Amino acid sequence: MFLDPLRLSPDGDLPGPVLTEVTALYASNHAFHALSGDFPDPYDIRPEQVAAELARELADPHTEVLLARDRGLLVGIAVTLAVHPDPADPDPWIGLLMVDASLHGQGHGRRLAGLVEDRLRSAGRTAVRLAVLEDNTRGLAFWTALGYTEIARRRDRDLGRPCRVLRKPLTAPEQTPDPA
């Protein structure tokens, strides 16, 4: 798996084939979108809605949208925020990590999270935060299994939804001893 930063065209648009892939990925995650309320109808997510959401994300110069590809196929997406709007918050954030629903349970989410953590670690960051919607028990189980711990409960900045804020220190990756 590798991460491919999403870039808009000079006109500010997503290339058509990429928009089609990302829309299919978003549309596959009905249950998450029913919880989040990010789209009016979680069973009818349209390309123009996804394009508007990604353009909104990318309008922040501290945001990066990363496409996760495995064997040429889009398997997931991650949205990171290098600088949180609250100046008292020193950590970068994972704003979204989503894997195509048809691929859940195959380790893609764990690998994608690890690649995002590695990327932040290599940029000199020492910890990462994220928020899990209060009702998202599957998401909470996923993140806590990866070593994230709850540090706060509050409402999200955009829609006021109740969330758990999780944090994970980014220690150096474990080194495998050289057999020589």
TrEMBL record:
<feature type="domain" description="N-acetyltransferase">
    <location>
        <begin position="30"/>
        <end position="171"/>
    </location>
</feature>
<dbReference type="InterPro" id="IPR000182">
    <property type="entry name" value="GNAT_dom"/>
</dbReference>
<dbReference type="InterPro" id="IPR016181">
    <property type="entry name" value="Acyl_CoA_acyltransferase"/>
</dbReference>
<protein>
    <submittedName>
        <fullName>N-acetyltransferase</fullName>
        <ecNumber>2.3.1.-</ecNumber>
    </submittedName>
</protein>
<dbReference type="GO" id="GO:0016746">
    <property type="term" value="F:acyltransferase activity"/>
</dbReference>
<keyword id="KW-0808">Transferase</keyword>
<dbReference type="Pfam" id="PF00583">
    <property type="entry name" value="Acetyltransf_1"/>
</dbReference>
<keyword id="KW-0012">Acyltransferase</keyword>
<dbReference type="InterPro" id="IPR050832">
    <property type="entry name" value="Bact_Acetyltransf"/>
</dbReference>
